[in-house]
Amino acid sequence: MRNSDFQSILFKDRLTVIREHRGWNQAELAKRIGSHESSIAHYENGSRMPSCDALVRLADCLQVSTDYLLGRVDYPELPQARDPLFEGLAKISHADRLLALNILKLLAERAPPK
Fold this sequence. Notes:
Order of helices and strands: HHHHHHH
Radius of gyration: 18 Å
Number of domains: 2
CATH topology of the largest domain: 434 Repressor (Amino-terminal Domain)
Largest sheet: none
């Protein structure tokens, strides 16, 4: 089996499971992302993959990462949902973000090699 075939199978299965977990039918998901019910049906039966734009809209609507939908990671939550470093990031100024970035770089340089 080619890697792209495996990703297609994972995508269709993950999309279906997450949609059902949200309690939505295909028509509801299509409406929420501004698409057609038939497109969702094609994605879920594996006959078609979404465009990049549609993939991003699906991930945003379902609140998962595109990497999860594509089978590149095994956890559905967004990285910032799992990492306390992301919690206050949106609240700080640009200057403070640059300062935080420099501090993180210094800490990474100081860390022992793995």
